[in-house]
Every structure is written in structure tokens, then in C-alpha cells.
Fold TRAP transporter small permease protein.
Amino acid sequence: MQGVMRGYIRAVDSVNHRIGRIAMYGIFVLMGILLWSSISKTFFLPSLWTLEMAQFVMVGYYILGGPYSIQLGSNVRMDLLYGEWSIRRKAWFDLLTVCFLIFYLCVLLYGAVSSTAYSLGYWKTEPFSYLFGIVTGSEEIGRLERSSSAWRPYMWPIKVVMIVGFLLMLLQCVSELCKDVLRLKGEEI
């Protein structure tokens, strides 16, 4: 069992490390978009797409970088008490809190899947079966959702990024749970 846990930890940490290292450069993309927005508003006609595109890039940056942040332990934590605790006590506390985080991420993932199914035009109540092609028979399919702004981009690409980000964060939290279990058993990680 410990070998399976170690393999899972290595695989998930490796994937999230790579994606996080790529996602961290999204801040430069965001800066470029906001710089162009400032230049175009000052010297040219204002671009319609810059504000909403900056929001989309920020969502990708934040959500895809979240698992990497959890992996590095750079997430926000109350170190007033936590910093003085022993490794074993920290592991017990992390084990408890990561269970709450996993539940919360499951709720967010369900909401993201439902929202993505809706943005693709599905109006019924089984978003997972729709996205994974499980439901057979007649389907209620509508139009693809677009933003209500003047630019009117499709919404499904950013919602797919949200699904991927929440899924990666959920996998990373399970990896952290496995690390805590190994720490409590006295294993070296």
C-alpha cells in the first residue's frame, strides 16, 4: 500500500510541478494584456477584448497554479501556532484540514462540470453524463453560452480550464493526504 501511495505522490507531484511551472508565466501574459489595454486606451481606440481576456488569463493563472502552490506548501496558513508544532502534530492537523478541502473541491468540481455543460448548451440536470457521453436517447441541447460583454467570447474554454484546475487541485490534495499518512507512520517522504 505504501508503494502505491508513493507512486501516486510522485506521479501527481510531477504533473502539478510541470503545469505549475508553466502556469506561473501566465502573469507575464496578463501583464502584456493589461499593458496593451493601457496603450490602446491612451493612443488608439480602446480594445474591447482586453479586460475580459485579462480576467480569463487570471483565472487560468490562479486555478492552474493552485496545485503547485499546495505542493510547495506556500498556501496561506496560520503559522502563529502551526510553526511551533512537531511534524507529527502538523501531520494530524493537515490530515484533518485536507479532508475538508477535498470535500470543498468536490463541490467546486461538480459546480464547474455543471456550469461547463450549461455553457455547451445542455439544460438538463445530469452534467457528468452529458460531458462524458453516458446518456442515451433524446437530449436537450441549446446554444453555446457567450459572455454578455461587447466582445462576446464563448465561455466554455475558461470553464474547461476550471474543471482541469479543480481536478488537479483535488489530485494534489489527495497526494498531500497520502504524505500526511506516511508521516504519521514515520515514513520518510
